[in-house]
Amino acid sequence: MKTQIMNPIYDATFKYLMQDIETASHVFTILLGQKTQVLHFLTTEIAQKKKIKERKNDDLSVNRMDFVAQVQIKDRSIKVILEIQKSTYKNSIARFSNYVGQQYSSRKVVDEKISKRKKSNQNDKNNPKDNNLPIISVYLLGENLEKIPEPFTQLRRVLIDAETKKEIPYQRDEDFLELLSHDMVVVQIKRLSEKTKKTFAQQDKKLRSFFTIFDQKLKMKEHEGKVLMIDTEGLDDETIKAVERLNNAMYDQQLQYEIQQQHNFDTAMENDQKMIEYQKKLIEEAQKEKEEAQQREMEAQKEKEEAQQREMEAQKEKEKAKQREIEAQKEKEEAQQRERAKSIRLARRMLKDGESIAVIMEETELTEQEILQLKL
Protein backbone atom coordinates (compact mmCIF):
# COMPACT_ATOMS: atom_id res chain seq x y z
CA MET A 1 0.00 0.00 0.00
CA LYS A 2 1.29 3.45 -0.92
CA THR A 3 1.40 5.99 1.89
CA GLN A 4 2.50 9.61 1.96
CA ILE A 5 4.83 10.66 4.78
CA MET A 6 6.64 13.85 5.67
CA ASN A 7 10.28 13.71 4.57
CA PRO A 8 12.39 13.06 7.71
CA ILE A 9 15.38 14.77 6.10
CA TYR A 10 13.79 17.99 7.34
CA ASP A 11 14.87 18.82 10.88
CA ALA A 12 11.37 19.52 12.22
CA THR A 13 10.07 16.22 10.79
CA PHE A 14 12.98 14.24 12.20
CA LYS A 15 12.51 15.87 15.60
CA TYR A 16 8.79 14.99 15.47
CA LEU A 17 9.68 11.38 14.59
CA MET A 18 12.18 11.02 17.44
CA GLN A 19 9.91 12.55 20.09
CA ASP A 20 8.05 9.24 20.23
CA ILE A 21 9.96 7.03 22.71
CA GLU A 22 8.98 3.78 21.00
CA THR A 23 10.02 5.06 17.57
CA ALA A 24 13.27 6.51 18.95
CA SER A 25 14.07 3.14 20.53
CA HIS A 26 13.53 1.40 17.17
CA VAL A 27 15.68 3.97 15.37
CA PHE A 28 18.59 3.48 17.74
CA THR A 29 18.20 -0.30 17.73
CA ILE A 30 18.62 -0.23 13.94
CA LEU A 31 21.49 2.28 13.92
CA LEU A 32 23.47 0.70 16.77
CA GLY A 33 22.72 -2.88 15.79
CA GLN A 34 21.96 -3.55 19.45
CA LYS A 35 18.68 -3.72 21.35
CA THR A 36 18.01 -0.22 22.69
CA GLN A 37 15.34 1.15 24.99
CA VAL A 38 15.16 4.94 25.15
CA LEU A 39 14.30 6.04 28.70
CA HIS A 40 13.86 9.79 28.24
CA PHE A 41 15.07 12.87 26.39
CA LEU A 42 17.83 15.11 27.67
CA THR A 43 18.06 18.09 25.32
CA THR A 44 17.08 19.10 21.83
CA GLU A 45 18.85 21.87 19.94
CA ILE A 46 17.38 23.00 16.65
CA ALA A 47 17.06 26.47 15.14
CA GLN A 48 13.43 26.31 14.05
CA LYS A 49 12.00 29.38 15.82
CA LYS A 50 14.00 32.03 13.99
CA LYS A 51 12.45 33.79 11.08
CA ILE A 52 13.90 33.04 7.69
CA LYS A 53 15.55 36.47 7.43
CA GLU A 54 17.23 36.05 10.81
CA ARG A 55 18.73 32.65 10.12
CA LYS A 56 22.32 31.93 9.27
CA ASN A 57 23.92 28.82 7.79
CA ASP A 58 24.82 27.58 11.28
CA ASP A 59 21.20 27.77 12.45
CA LEU A 60 19.94 24.84 10.41
CA SER A 61 23.17 23.05 9.64
CA VAL A 62 23.06 20.77 12.69
CA ASN A 63 20.03 19.34 14.50
CA ARG A 64 21.03 17.87 17.88
CA MET A 65 19.04 15.56 20.16
CA ASP A 66 20.18 13.72 23.27
CA PHE A 67 18.57 10.68 24.88
CA VAL A 68 19.21 8.50 27.89
CA ALA A 69 18.83 4.83 26.99
CA GLN A 70 19.59 1.26 27.99
CA VAL A 71 21.68 -0.50 25.31
CA GLN A 72 22.07 -4.28 25.30
CA ILE A 73 25.76 -5.00 24.63
CA LYS A 74 26.42 -8.73 24.55
CA ASP A 75 25.04 -10.04 27.85
CA ARG A 76 24.96 -6.68 29.62
CA SER A 77 22.53 -3.78 29.60
CA ILE A 78 24.38 -0.46 29.80
CA LYS A 79 22.90 2.96 30.43
CA VAL A 80 24.26 5.56 28.01
CA ILE A 81 23.66 8.97 26.49
CA LEU A 82 22.68 8.64 22.83
CA GLU A 83 23.62 11.82 21.02
CA ILE A 84 22.16 12.15 17.52
CA GLN A 85 23.22 14.98 15.23
CA LYS A 86 21.71 15.59 11.82
CA SER A 87 23.31 17.89 9.27
CA THR A 88 21.78 19.16 6.04
CA TYR A 89 24.80 21.01 4.70
CA LYS A 90 28.47 20.40 4.09
CA ASN A 91 31.36 21.42 6.34
CA SER A 92 29.65 20.68 9.67
CA ILE A 93 32.65 18.95 11.25
CA ALA A 94 33.57 21.92 13.44
CA ARG A 95 30.01 22.22 14.76
CA PHE A 96 29.82 18.46 15.38
CA SER A 97 33.09 18.48 17.32
CA ASN A 98 32.12 21.61 19.25
CA TYR A 99 28.93 19.93 20.47
CA VAL A 100 30.76 16.76 21.50
CA GLY A 101 33.32 18.96 23.25
CA GLN A 102 30.54 20.73 25.12
CA GLN A 103 29.16 17.37 26.25
CA TYR A 104 32.54 16.38 27.68
CA SER A 105 33.38 19.77 29.18
CA SER A 106 29.99 19.94 30.91
CA ARG A 107 31.12 17.08 33.12
CA LYS A 108 33.84 19.17 34.77
CA VAL A 109 36.83 17.03 35.74
CA VAL A 110 37.32 13.34 34.91
CA ASP A 111 38.26 12.30 38.43
CA GLU A 112 35.29 14.18 39.86
CA LYS A 113 32.79 12.63 37.49
CA ILE A 114 34.22 9.16 37.99
CA SER A 115 33.95 9.48 41.73
CA LYS A 116 30.39 10.78 41.36
CA ARG A 117 29.47 7.86 39.16
CA LYS A 118 30.95 5.35 41.60
CA LYS A 119 29.14 7.01 44.48
CA SER A 120 25.91 6.99 42.50
CA ASN A 121 26.39 3.36 41.58
CA GLN A 122 26.91 2.49 45.21
CA ASN A 123 23.60 4.12 46.08
CA ASP A 124 21.71 2.70 43.12
CA LYS A 125 23.58 0.51 40.66
CA ASN A 126 20.72 0.59 38.20
CA ASN A 127 20.40 4.38 38.09
CA PRO A 128 23.74 6.20 37.59
CA LYS A 129 23.46 9.94 37.14
CA ASP A 130 22.68 10.90 33.56
CA ASN A 131 25.47 13.48 33.29
CA ASN A 132 28.07 10.82 34.10
CA LEU A 133 27.10 8.35 31.38
CA PRO A 134 29.13 7.18 28.37
CA ILE A 135 28.24 8.78 25.02
CA ILE A 136 27.39 7.11 21.71
CA SER A 137 27.17 9.55 18.80
CA VAL A 138 25.01 9.14 15.70
CA TYR A 139 25.50 11.40 12.67
CA LEU A 140 22.91 11.69 9.88
CA LEU A 141 24.52 13.57 6.99
CA GLY A 142 22.64 15.34 4.22
CA GLU A 143 25.82 15.56 2.12
CA ASN A 144 28.14 12.72 1.15
CA LEU A 145 31.60 11.99 2.52
CA GLU A 146 33.85 11.88 -0.54
CA LYS A 147 36.17 9.12 0.70
CA ILE A 148 33.55 6.81 2.27
CA PRO A 149 31.16 5.34 -0.34
CA GLU A 150 29.26 3.13 2.12
CA PRO A 151 26.04 4.84 3.30
CA PHE A 152 25.85 3.23 6.75
CA THR A 153 29.01 2.83 8.86
CA GLN A 154 29.88 2.26 12.52
CA LEU A 155 33.11 3.31 14.20
CA ARG A 156 33.75 1.22 17.30
CA ARG A 157 36.51 1.43 19.84
CA VAL A 158 38.97 -1.43 20.26
CA LEU A 159 41.36 -1.77 23.21
CA ILE A 160 44.82 -3.00 22.08
CA ASP A 161 47.78 -4.22 24.11
CA ALA A 162 50.51 -1.87 22.83
CA GLU A 163 53.21 -4.52 23.36
CA THR A 164 51.58 -7.64 21.90
CA LYS A 165 49.22 -5.77 19.48
CA LYS A 166 46.42 -8.09 20.62
CA GLU A 167 42.89 -6.94 21.37
CA ILE A 168 42.01 -6.76 25.05
CA PRO A 169 38.37 -7.64 25.86
CA TYR A 170 36.74 -5.44 28.46
CA GLN A 171 33.19 -5.18 29.72
CA ARG A 172 32.71 -1.42 29.26
CA ASP A 173 32.99 -1.01 33.01
CA GLU A 174 36.19 1.06 33.11
CA ASP A 175 35.04 4.64 33.70
CA PHE A 176 38.26 6.23 32.46
CA LEU A 177 37.81 4.68 29.01
CA GLU A 178 34.03 4.91 28.84
CA LEU A 179 33.79 8.56 29.83
CA LEU A 180 36.66 9.85 27.68
CA SER A 181 35.94 8.07 24.39
CA HIS A 182 32.89 7.05 22.42
CA ASP A 183 31.62 4.97 19.52
CA MET A 184 29.88 6.56 16.57
CA VAL A 185 27.48 5.75 13.74
CA VAL A 186 27.46 7.63 10.41
CA VAL A 187 24.59 7.59 7.90
CA GLN A 188 24.95 9.31 4.52
CA ILE A 189 21.32 9.87 3.55
CA LYS A 190 21.92 10.62 -0.14
CA ARG A 191 23.77 7.31 -0.59
CA LEU A 192 20.91 5.21 0.81
CA SER A 193 18.66 4.83 -2.24
CA GLU A 194 20.63 2.22 -4.19
CA LYS A 195 21.79 0.46 -1.03
CA THR A 196 18.26 0.00 0.31
CA LYS A 197 17.21 -1.71 -2.92
CA LYS A 198 20.26 -3.99 -3.22
CA THR A 199 22.49 -5.02 -0.31
CA PHE A 200 20.14 -4.14 2.54
CA ALA A 201 17.33 -6.08 0.90
CA GLN A 202 19.53 -9.18 0.71
CA GLN A 203 21.25 -8.93 4.08
CA ASP A 204 18.90 -7.26 6.53
CA LYS A 205 15.17 -6.67 6.09
CA LYS A 206 14.99 -4.33 9.08
CA LEU A 207 17.72 -2.11 7.63
CA ARG A 208 15.98 -2.00 4.26
CA SER A 209 12.66 -1.20 5.90
CA PHE A 210 14.03 1.52 8.14
CA PHE A 211 16.16 3.29 5.53
CA THR A 212 13.25 3.28 3.07
CA ILE A 213 11.75 6.19 4.99
CA PHE A 214 14.90 8.21 4.19
CA ASP A 215 15.01 7.30 0.48
CA GLN A 216 15.16 10.67 -1.29
CA LYS A 217 14.27 9.10 -4.63
CA LEU A 218 10.72 8.74 -3.27
CA LYS A 219 10.20 12.52 -3.06
CA MET A 220 6.98 13.84 -4.57
CA LYS A 221 7.59 16.74 -6.94
CA GLU A 222 4.15 18.22 -6.34
CA HIS A 223 5.10 18.64 -2.67
CA GLU A 224 8.51 20.13 -3.49
CA GLY A 225 10.27 17.15 -1.90
CA LYS A 226 8.74 17.70 1.53
CA VAL A 227 6.67 14.52 1.16
CA LEU A 228 7.73 10.96 0.30
CA MET A 229 5.52 8.29 -1.27
CA ILE A 230 6.27 5.06 0.63
CA ASP A 231 5.23 1.53 -0.32
CA THR A 232 4.59 -0.16 3.04
CA GLU A 233 4.44 -3.65 1.57
CA GLY A 234 7.28 -5.74 3.01
CA LEU A 235 8.16 -3.26 5.77
CA ASP A 236 8.54 -4.59 9.32
CA ASP A 237 6.04 -3.64 12.03
CA GLU A 238 8.34 -1.16 13.79
CA THR A 239 9.04 0.76 10.58
CA ILE A 240 5.33 0.81 9.73
CA LYS A 241 4.73 2.52 13.10
CA ALA A 242 7.35 5.13 12.13
CA VAL A 243 5.61 5.53 8.75
CA GLU A 244 2.27 6.07 10.51
CA ARG A 245 3.82 8.73 12.73
CA LEU A 246 5.33 10.50 9.72
CA ASN A 247 1.98 10.27 8.00
CA ASN A 248 0.32 11.91 11.02
CA ALA A 249 2.89 14.70 10.74
CA MET A 250 1.19 15.80 7.52
CA TYR A 251 -1.75 17.06 9.57
CA ASP A 252 0.24 19.03 12.17
CA GLN A 253 -0.09 22.70 11.11
CA GLN A 254 2.71 24.00 13.35
CA LEU A 255 5.02 21.29 12.05
CA GLN A 256 4.02 22.12 8.46
CA TYR A 257 4.90 25.75 9.12
CA GLU A 258 8.34 24.84 10.50
CA ILE A 259 9.02 22.50 7.58
CA GLN A 260 8.03 25.21 5.09
CA GLN A 261 10.37 27.62 6.86
CA GLN A 262 13.26 25.20 6.52
CA HIS A 263 12.28 24.45 2.91
CA ASN A 264 12.39 28.16 2.11
CA PHE A 265 15.72 28.46 3.85
CA ASP A 266 17.12 25.37 2.10
CA THR A 267 15.95 26.69 -1.27
CA ALA A 268 17.59 30.05 -0.58
CA MET A 269 20.76 28.29 0.53
CA GLU A 270 20.77 26.10 -2.57
CA ASN A 271 20.26 29.12 -4.81
CA ASP A 272 23.03 30.97 -2.99
CA GLN A 273 25.28 27.95 -3.33
CA LYS A 274 24.47 27.66 -7.03
CA MET A 275 25.23 31.36 -7.47
CA ILE A 276 28.48 30.98 -5.54
CA GLU A 277 29.45 27.98 -7.64
CA TYR A 278 28.46 29.83 -10.83
CA GLN A 279 30.49 32.88 -9.84
CA LYS A 280 33.35 30.63 -8.82
CA LYS A 281 33.14 28.93 -12.21
CA LEU A 282 33.17 32.32 -13.98
CA ILE A 283 36.18 33.42 -11.92
CA GLU A 284 37.97 30.14 -12.64
CA GLU A 285 37.19 30.41 -16.36
CA ALA A 286 38.35 34.06 -16.41
CA GLN A 287 41.49 33.10 -14.53
CA LYS A 288 42.06 30.21 -16.91
CA GLU A 289 41.54 32.47 -19.93
CA LYS A 290 43.91 35.02 -18.42
CA GLU A 291 46.55 32.35 -17.80
CA GLU A 292 46.07 30.96 -21.32
CA ALA A 293 46.38 34.49 -22.75
CA GLN A 294 49.52 35.04 -20.69
CA GLN A 295 50.81 31.69 -21.91
CA ARG A 296 50.08 32.64 -25.52
CA GLU A 297 51.76 36.00 -24.96
CA MET A 298 54.79 34.31 -23.44
CA GLU A 299 54.95 31.84 -26.33
CA ALA A 300 54.61 34.70 -28.85
CA GLN A 301 57.35 36.63 -27.05
CA LYS A 302 59.51 33.54 -27.02
CA GLU A 303 58.88 32.98 -30.74
CA LYS A 304 59.74 36.64 -31.41
CA GLU A 305 62.97 36.34 -29.42
CA GLU A 306 63.84 33.11 -31.21
CA ALA A 307 63.14 34.79 -34.59
CA GLN A 308 65.34 37.71 -33.57
CA GLN A 309 68.01 35.24 -32.49
CA ARG A 310 67.77 33.45 -35.83
CA GLU A 311 67.98 36.79 -37.64
CA MET A 312 71.03 37.79 -35.63
CA GLU A 313 72.67 34.44 -36.34
CA ALA A 314 71.85 34.78 -40.05
CA GLN A 315 73.33 38.29 -40.08
CA LYS A 316 76.37 37.04 -38.26
CA GLU A 317 76.74 34.20 -40.78
CA LYS A 318 76.34 36.69 -43.64
CA GLU A 319 79.10 38.86 -42.17
CA LYS A 320 81.33 35.81 -41.76
CA ALA A 321 80.70 34.83 -45.41
CA LYS A 322 81.53 38.36 -46.55
CA GLN A 323 84.70 38.29 -44.46
CA ARG A 324 85.66 34.97 -46.00
CA GLU A 325 85.01 36.43 -49.46
CA ILE A 326 87.23 39.44 -48.70
CA GLU A 327 89.95 37.19 -47.35
CA ALA A 328 89.68 34.94 -50.42
CA GLN A 329 89.90 37.97 -52.72
CA LYS A 330 92.89 39.24 -50.81
CA GLU A 331 94.52 35.82 -51.00
CA LYS A 332 93.83 35.75 -54.74
CA GLU A 333 95.34 39.18 -55.26
CA GLU A 334 98.39 38.26 -53.20
CA ALA A 335 98.79 35.09 -55.25
CA GLN A 336 98.52 37.12 -58.47
CA GLN A 337 101.08 39.56 -57.16
CA ARG A 338 103.44 36.72 -56.26
CA GLU A 339 102.93 35.16 -59.70
CA ARG A 340 103.59 38.53 -61.45
CA ALA A 341 106.73 39.12 -59.41
CA LYS A 342 107.90 35.64 -60.35
CA SER A 343 107.16 36.29 -64.07
CA ILE A 344 109.04 39.61 -63.93
CA ARG A 345 112.10 37.97 -62.39
CA LEU A 346 112.02 35.25 -65.08
CA ALA A 347 111.58 37.80 -67.87
CA ARG A 348 114.63 39.78 -66.67
CA ARG A 349 116.81 36.66 -66.66
CA MET A 350 115.58 35.73 -70.12
CA LEU A 351 116.30 39.27 -71.41
CA LYS A 352 119.72 39.06 -69.88
CA ASP A 353 120.24 35.71 -71.60
CA GLY A 354 119.23 37.30 -74.92
CA GLU A 355 115.93 35.56 -75.42
CA SER A 356 113.50 37.12 -77.87
CA ILE A 357 110.49 39.09 -76.67
CA ALA A 358 108.14 36.57 -78.30
CA VAL A 359 109.66 33.68 -76.33
CA ILE A 360 109.59 35.70 -73.09
CA MET A 361 105.91 36.61 -73.62
CA GLU A 362 105.01 32.96 -74.15
CA GLU A 363 106.94 31.84 -71.09
CA THR A 364 105.89 34.57 -68.63
CA GLU A 365 102.50 35.63 -70.01
CA LEU A 366 103.66 39.25 -69.75
CA THR A 367 102.68 41.73 -72.45
CA GLU A 368 105.20 43.11 -74.90
CA GLN A 369 104.86 46.53 -73.31
CA GLU A 370 105.59 45.09 -69.84
CA ILE A 371 108.68 43.32 -71.18
CA LEU A 372 109.91 46.44 -73.02
CA GLN A 373 109.54 48.39 -69.73
CA LEU A 374 111.93 45.90 -68.08
CA LYS A 375 114.63 46.89 -70.63
CA LEU A 376 114.58 50.53 -69.57
Secondary-structure map:
Blueprint: E1 2-6, H1 11-18, H2 21-32, E2 36-45, H3 57-61, E3 62-73, E4 76-87, H4 93-105, H5 110-123, E5 135-141, E6 152-155, H6 175-180, E7 183-188, H7 192-197, H8 199-203, H9 205-212, E8 227-231, H10 237-248, H11 253-352, H12 357-364, H13 368-375
Parallel strand pairs: 4-5, 5-7
Antiparallel strand pairs: 1-8, 2-3, 3-4, 6-7
Helix pairs in contact: 1-11, 11-12
Structure, described:
Residues 47-55, 107-118 and 121-128 have low confidence and may be disordered. The chain is 55% helix and 16% strand. The chain has a domain at 8-48 and 58-215. The strands form 2 sheets. Strands 2-3-4-5-7-6 form a 6-stranded mixed beta sheet. It is α/β, with parallel strands linked by helices and 376 residues long. The protein is built from 13 helices and 8 strands. Helix 1 (11-18) crosses helix 11 (253-352) and helix 11 packs antiparallel against helix 12 (357-364).
